Amino acid sequence: MEWTPDPRELADLELLLSGAFEPLTGFLGHDDLHTVHERGTLADGTRWPAPVTLHLPADVSPGDEVTLLDPEGLPLAVLTVTAHEPDGLTSGPIKGLGTPEHGPFARLRRTPDQVREELGGRTALAVTMRGPLDDLSEIADTAKELDAVILLLPLAYGEPGPALVRAALRAQERLPAGTLVVPVPLAPRDEPEIDLELREHVATAYGATEHLAGPDPVHIPGPPHRRGLVVFFTGLSGSGKSTIARGLRDALLELGTRTVTYLDGDVVRHLLSKGLTFSKADRDLNIRRIGFVAAETARHGGLAICAPIAPYAATREEVREMVESVGADFLLVHVATPLEECERRDRKGLYAKARAGLIPEFTGVSDPYEEPDDADLVIDTTHISIEAAVSRVLDTLKGGGWVR
């Protein structure tokens, strides 16, 4: 089978293939994870600070081979499965199939072996960076004291990656001649101590004699009305979510203070997701496509309004993560009109067809709707007008500073 890992797993895969995660030869299984969490070692006692894992939702068995792809479908490695847990945790050794393709600053990417060869046995002071280096005096003084080459390792993972490499190149211009810049796609770990230990391990793999950890970035978000925002409506068919969403779009266009993109569920089905069925897999794919377009809109400061049914909690959470990963805000609006009221309205006759068995996998009848427990706003349109519902959403946007 073929599988595309998520961004964090892809970053770990690249470091496994390059040798930066030596002595690891693949993704960790249950026993290694247990001892990593408990003692900071692998099951055989080898020092290792952090989980390096892969989750596969598909049913695989020991001995199976899984081709791991990049987001463009390029094969990167083959995983030979040694264990597959009920939660999807899949372990096993990997074998590289080719060099990963990189985007910005691809010319600067090098493997640990290549960097060590370039260093030629010289003492190296590695500086791992998750943010810009404001004060370079300590780095320059330490390198002079050690008579060391300076090796800047911008940990270029995710959206901030290119900006971080640019910061490293600016620092290179102010540091002694011969300073090297090598981007490393090391995803941050949640616990600072573990993140630091992993950074030290990677620095050593790249030939560092000494290691300095650059300061963590300080994120100062702009005012809400300048940030990207996705207003994501979810609710049963006939709940009123599309009508409220259109009303919100019209109200925002009248105000004229934000750039608005409207992604209605039915319209998206006819265009962006034409050909998809109403199976769970295709419904999830439809929502991911909506989420991707909305996140791209929000990435550039726009305001996107989405109004699909989005019946599954896990997929809604994926969309939230997509949006927040690009530095935008996400507002979930649950239009919680009860099923009985939605069915009473049934302007399209869909519920009647579903009850008659003519529409399989219909949300609320033959397929579940998982009510959100993380909604930022809940509206029941049974006893209020659409105008009042739109006003509630608009007031929320104004109260949060997203609209002025």
From TrEMBL:
It is an enzyme of class 2 (transferase). It comes from the Bacteria. ATP binds at G235, L236, S237, G238, S239, G240, K241, S242. Keywords: ATP-binding, Kinase, Nucleotide-binding, Phosphoprotein, Transferase. Residues 6-83 form the ATP-sulfurylase PUA-like domain. Gene3D superfamilies: P-loop containing nucleotide triphosphate hydrolases, Sulfate adenylyltransferase. Pfam families: APS_kinase, PUA_2. Residues 227-380 form the APS kinase domain. Pathway: Sulfur metabolism; hydrogen sulfide biosynthesis; sulfite from sulfate: step 2/3. It catalyses: adenosine 5'-phosphosulfate + ATP = 3'-phosphoadenylyl sulfate + ADP + H(+). Its EC number is 2.7.1.25. InterPro entries: APS, APS_kinase_dom, ATP-Sase_PUA-like_dom, P-loop_NTPase, PUA-like_sf, Sulf_AdTrans/APS_kinase. NCBIfam families: apsK, PRK03846.1. Catalyzes the synthesis of activated sulfate. Belongs to the APS kinase family. PANTHER family: SULFATE ADENYLYLTRANSFERASE. This is Adenylyl-sulfate kinase.
